[in-house]
Design brief:
7 helices, 5 strands
């Protein structure tokens, strides 16, 4: 993809968004942003108690990321945003469809995702929340971005993203 300035790395909990985003930023010389850091305390408390967020909970969170990460990202400086972006209108709110904004959907089967979540420590998103995320997920259409399987190694995932978006390590 020509002139990419923002890559939104999306998927449900356990897909590896933060890990892939951080490593991709390092490989490409970009700046990594984790959507978890933009949640207001009320959202974190709600998720930590096992309650899924609704559209009303997510609206200010999405707005903040758009204003602080996506819109100010200048051409020539890559920003990578790891964000669940489960619904099509969330992705649109984040700037998908705007020139220079690309989408990478990290896709995995529920057994792999569940296993990864059970191995996590010290994260507010518990494995019991996976079902609600999968129920909410609107998988992106092919024209929205690229879909990458999480079944390979981290290096394989990174290589595939770079190849499919036409990006090269710095």
């Amino acid at each position: 993809m020509k002139d990419v300035r923002v890559i939104i790395i999306m998927g449900v909990a356990g897909a590896g968004k933060s890990t892939v985003g951080a490593h991709l930023a390092q490989r490409l010389g970009g700046c990594f942003h984790d959507a978890d850091a933009y949640h207001p305390p009320g959202n974190i408390a709600k998720m930590a108690s096992g309650q899924p967020l609704n559209d009303q909970d997510r609206a200010p969170w999405l707005k903040r990321m758009r204003e602080e990460v996506v819109d100010p990202a200048p051409p020539g400086k890559l920003a990578l945003l790891a964000c669940s972006a489960l619904k099509a209108h969330y992705r649109k709110q984040l700037g998908l469809g705007t020139p220079g904004v690309a989408l990478v959907y990290l896709k995995g089967d529920s057994a792999t995702l569940q296993r990864r979540l059970e191995l996590r420590e010290s994260h507010f998103m518990k494995s019991g929340m996976l079902a609600s995320q999968l129920a909410t997920l609107e998988e992106p259409a092919d024209f929205e971005g690229i879909t990458v399987s999480i079944e390979g190694s981290l290096e394989q995932v990174l290589d595939e993203i770079c190849a499919r978006l036409g990006l090269h390590a710095v």
